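Worked Example 4.2. Consider the chain below.
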Amino acid sequence: MTHTELETHLTENYAALERYIKFRISDKDLADDLVQDICLTVLTHGESLRQPESFRPWLYRIARNRLNDVYRSPEREREIRTDRMDSFVSRRADAFVHHDAVSETLARLGDGDRRLLMLCYMSDITQKEAAEQLGIPLGTLKTRLTAAKKRFRERYPYTKEMERTTMKKRIFPEIMPEYTITQRPDAPFEVVHEAIIGWGIVPRLGEKCAWAAYDFPEKKLTETMHLEVTGRAEVHGIEGVEIKTVESGWNSSDNLVFAMEETERWFIAQLTDTHCRLLAESHIEDGVKKCYTFLDGASFLDNWGFGEDNCGFETHLRPHGWITKDGERVTVVPEPQVIDICGRFDVTIAGKMYDTICLMDVESYDTKVLTETYIDREGRIVLWRRFNRNDWGQKRIGQLWTERFPENEHLTVNGEIYVHWYDCIYDWILK
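Applying the procedure from the previous section yields the following structure tokens:
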């Protein structure tokens, strides 16, 4: 291949290569150096390639070999050559100007979809190996891959009209609105909060809502969720309502939770006088709509169930005294894995102040995860915040969270450190 052809292919694959490296290397400077080193190798040795279709597998073999070097010798002094990269770096601004409809369509997909498609179809590895690299079950990978392929087909070939349609769906700002949280000396109030914990919608006919997630410290929009109750439903003789959710991924470069763009899911949920619970979940996998109910045991309950016999979450919230919060210090009695109101707070966000109670969940719903839900007197969520215990996902990430995000807020719970990761805000506070 000629030098010009190499530059063309490298430009087409540059954004995906950068994501491939940065997904595995948390050190930004090292990741940038590795990307440039790989590009240098391509431009220096690629003229021996004869077939254009061999370029992508060859590129990713180089990338995997360079990553293996880093993994084998993480403490060695880096010897990354960048002296001959000027001719390529000058083209970085053109990295998204692709030369064919396939590349253009890939470039306009969400990060999660691009990552999956590149990993599963352009990196010469099996789906099982891809699942292991991403740290997710093989079944989860297949579900996400099916959805990614569907969205690629829907967008191929990419047009400007598709871009305008996508942009219209963004009702949230690109950057998280500034907010302050001030603890009040007043006693917490009791409140009826009927939303499904973790999803934020009340399972009642006519309800709908939308929320957005923002990663810290950048405070950039990474995910939006639109939810709507679509009608009455019954499962195993228990009546509830059906809820449709549409999840859309945006700009996360380090997305360990959100990984898809415009993925649909359905729930059946029930609201009683005292509790709110999920009864069934369904999604599309390999073109088949899969359905799971509370009678399916672990396949449902491990993900969507809560409480003894899946009784659900209490809707009448009142403080029990199990959790107290004093600044960054949190005390849980007797031990973590509990939900309770931990105080009363003024939350000022988007220019408005709200009198709220903080409902704190310490590892009761998710292992090694702490969440804060700030709820106003009407039972509406004003702000939702997530913290990870310092060793959450350490095997997959290779770092403690205090090392990964040292500038993010910390909470200490009974001596254990939890690090702030991302926040969610709801559409109603922006109106």
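The chain has three domains: 1-99, 101-168, 179-430. The mean pLDDT is 82. Compare this with Example 4.1 before moving on.
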